[in-house]
Amino acid sequence: MGKTVLTIDDSRMMREMLLMVLQGAGFNVVQAEDGKQGLDALSRTNPDVIITDINMPVMDGYGFIENARMDARYRSTPILVLSTESSPEKKQRARQAGATGWIVKPFQAESLLEVVRRVSA
Amino acid sequence: MDSFEAIKQTYFQECDELLADLEQNLLMLEAGEGDGDTINAVFRAVHSVKGGAGAFGFEALVAFAHIFETTLDDMRSGKLDPEQDVIKIMLRASDVLVDHLQAAKGQGVVDEERAATMSRELEALVGGGSNEETAPLSGESGGDEWGFKPLMFEVDAPAPAAGLTLVMRPTATMYAKGHDAVLFLRELERIAHAEIELDASALPSLDALDPEASYLTWTVRWPADVDEKAIRDVFDFVGDDCPIELKRDAPAPPHQPAVDVAAMLANIRDAAGPPVVTEEEHEEKVASPAAPGGKIESKSGAAAATIRVDLERVDRMIDLVGELVINQAMLAQRVAESETGRSSSIAMGLDELEQLTREIQDSVMAIRAQPVKSVFQRMPRLVREIAGATGKQVRLVTEGENTEVDKTVIERLSDPITHMLRNAIDHGLETPEERSASGKSPEGVVRLAALHRSGRIVIEVSDDGKGINRPRVREIAVNKGLIQPDANLSDDEIDNLIFLPGFSTASAVSNISGRGVGMDVVKRSIQGLGGRISIASVPGKGSTFTLSLPLTLAVLDGMVISAGEQTLVAPLTAIVETLRPKPQDIRPIGPNAALLAVRGAHVPLIDVGVALGLRDTPIDATAGVVLLVEGEGGARAGVVADEIQGQRQVVIKSLEANYQRVGGIAAATILGDGRVALILDVDAIIASQRDRTEAKPIALAS
Fold this sequence. Notes:
The complex is a heterodimer of chains A (about 120) and B (about 700). Chain A has about 120 residues and is α/β, with parallel strands linked by helices. Chain A contains 5 helices and 5 strands; from the N terminus they run E-H-E-H-E-H-E-H-E-H. Chain A has one domain: 3-Layer(aba) Sandwich (Rossmann fold), CATH 3.40.50. Chain A has helices at about 10-25, 35-45, 60-70, 90-95, 110-120, and strands at about 5-10, 30, 50, 80-85, 100-105. Chain A has a 5-stranded parallel beta sheet, with helices on both faces. In chain A, strand 1, helix 1 and strand 2 (about 30) form a beta-alpha-beta unit. In chain A, helix 2 (about 35-45) packs parallel to helix 3. The two termini of chain A are about 15 Å apart. Chain B is elongated. In chain B, a hairpin with a 2-residue loop joins strand 12 and strand 13 (about 565-570). In chain B, the strands form 5 sheets. In chain B, strands 14-18-19-17-16-15 form a 6-stranded mixed beta sheet. A 5-stranded mixed beta sheet of chain B has the order 6-8-9-11-10. By secondary structure, chain B is α+β, with helices and mostly antiparallel strands. Chains A and B meet through helix 1, helix 2, helix 3, helix 4 and strand 5 of A and helix 1, helix 2, helix 10 and helix 11 of B.
C-alpha cells in the first residue's frame, strides 16, 4: 500500500515532474495548484507527506503551512518546501510557519525520493 | 516522446503562457493600472520560468532570469518604484527572456550583446553593487540522465569525522511542526556510528502525561572524530525548536544501556502517542484561519472547468464531421431521387438529421475557435522594436482580443498583421518632430482591433499618422506603368494602388517595411485564405487597413452552379446578387467580350466556362444566369454560368494538398452525389478578365 504525497505547485511542469518521479517510486500523488487548493486537498486526502512550493498565487506556501498546521490532523505531517529560493530568511520564515524541511529546486529525482521516503518512514 | 521530453514540452508551453502574462502585466504597470498583485504576478512568472529552466540545465536562461528576478524582487519589496522608465526596461528584459527561451527550445539564438546590456541595465536598477549572486544555482552540472541538478536538504548532511557528545532536547514545538526525533537520530547515526541513549526520566505517569508535551532527552556519543559542522547542520532547520549541546571529549557515564534506533522508534511512538490538540491551543487556532480562507474562496471556486485535448483529436473529429456532412447530403440526394415525397417520414427524419449535423458541425468548430489574443499578444514587442528602429514614439491600442476565430485562421493571421503594423508605423506615422509641428501629440497611436462582422472576422489596423499621399502614390503608379497617366481614379482607387505588385512608396527601402515584401504579397496571402484587404485613408488624419477573413477554413457556404459538364461552387460571400440578364442590358465590346448594365453601372461579363478553359466560346448570357460577384477592393464582375443548382454548405478539401494549385480554383469539395466539385477563386477569375481588358485599354474606353 503506497503512501500518499500531496504536491502543491503552481507550475504545471513542476507538478508533472513530481508526479512522474513520485509515482514511479510507488507513491500515490495528489496535486494542488496553490495553497488554497492544497488546503482543500488536505481535507479530501490524508497525505503522508506534503511537498509545497513557496511562490504561488492565491495563497503562498507559508500561508498553506501555517493553515495546515492549525488543523490537529496535520500537525505532525511532514511538510517539505520545494523552492528555488535558498536565502536564510526565507528558510527561517518557512521554519516558523512549521515546515519540516527545505529542498532547493531544481531537485535530483533520487535525492528527492530519498528525503520523501525518510520523512514518511 | 519519453516522459522527460513530454515534461520539457509542458515547460515550454507553460513558459509561453507565463511570458505572455508577464508582458500583459508589465504593460498594465506601464499604463499605471497595476497594483501589488500585478507586481507579484510579474515576479512569479519570471520565478517560475527560472525554476523550470534549472531542471533542464538551461544555464543562460537561468542566469538571465535570476538577474531579472532579483530586480523584480526589489520592486516587490518596495525598494524599487514601478515607474514608467523602470517598466520600459523590464519590458525589454521580458523580450530578452523570450529570446533566451526560444534559444532553449532550439529555435534561434540569443543576441549575446543585447542580453549582456540588458543584464547590466537590470543590475543597475538594483543598485549596481550586488553582483555576488548572479550565477544563482551552483555550477555543479547535473549528473544523471535527467539533467537534474543536485539537491540540498537541510536534514541531510553526510560527512565523515569524531569524539563528541551531543545532548538534544526536542521541544513540543518541534514535534508540532512535523519533525520526528527519530529522523534526527537516524541522521546522526548516518554521520558516523554513534551510541544513543535515551533519558526518559522526565516522563510522568500516564494519567499526568500531556500528549503534546515533550519529555524525552537524548544523548548521542561518537567514539571517533566527527565533523561538528555536519552535526549542527542536521539541526539547522529546526533551530531553537530543538536545543542541542555539543561537547568534545566529555564522556558522560551511561545511566542506561545504549539502544539502537529501531528500539528507540518503538519507544517514542509509545511515549508520545498520536498528537492531540489541547483545548487552549485549539481556541487560538480556530480564530485566525477564517480570514485568509474566506477571502480566497471565490477565486478558487471560479476556476473554469477546462480540459486539455490533443489538437490532432479535434482535427480528426472535424474531418469526421466533414465526412458526416457529405454523407448526409448524399443520403438526402438519394431520398430525393427515390421520389418518396417531401412529407414522407424518411424525408422528415432526414431534415432533422440535417439540422443535427449542422449543429454538431458548429459545435466542433467552436472547439477549435480561439481568441485572437494569442496573436495580439505578440504585437506589443514588435511595435516596441519597430518604434525603436525608426525613432518614432508609438502607443499600441488593442481591442477585441477575445474575438474568436478558427485555430487555422489564427495561425495565419500573424504575418499579415505584423506587416500591416510595420507599414503603419514605418510609413503611416510621422516622426515626433513632424507630429509636433503639425499640432499632434509626439506619440503616435496605432490601433489593432478584431471584430466579427457578417460571419467573418475583421481585423483593423489604423494609425493617426499622415495618411496616404495620394498625388505621390499616383505619380509612382504612373512612373511604374501601373496606370495610364490620364486614368481617372477615385481617391479610394488611388489608395488601393498600394496593393499592386511592385509598388513601394518609401523612397529609400527601410529595413523595417521594405524587406522585399510589398503590400501585394500581404494581399495575396490573405486572398489565399479567402480573405480581403482594403485601405481607407484621410490625409493628415491617418489610414485604416481592414482585413476580413472567413471564420473557418474548413467549411464554406457556397452556391452550386454548372458550366458545361462541370459542377462548380461559388463562395456565397463573394456573390452580391444573381440575375437573368435581359438582352438589352448586354453591350458587346468585341468578339468575345461584353459588358452588363446593372443598375446604371457596367460590369464585365465573364463566362466561367471560358475562364476555366472548359469551353472556347462563351454561352449566350441571356440563356444562362449571371452571378454578380465582388472581389477584393470592390471590383465587380458578372460571372456567367449555365444554371444554378442550389445553395449549400460544403466542406473544403484542399486541391493543392491533394493535387496541385490550379488557376481560378480555390479548393475542391465533395457533393451529395459523391462527385467532386471545384470551388471558384472569384478574385482570380476577376483578375484574369482584368488582365485581358488591361491589355486592350482602348476597348474599355469606347
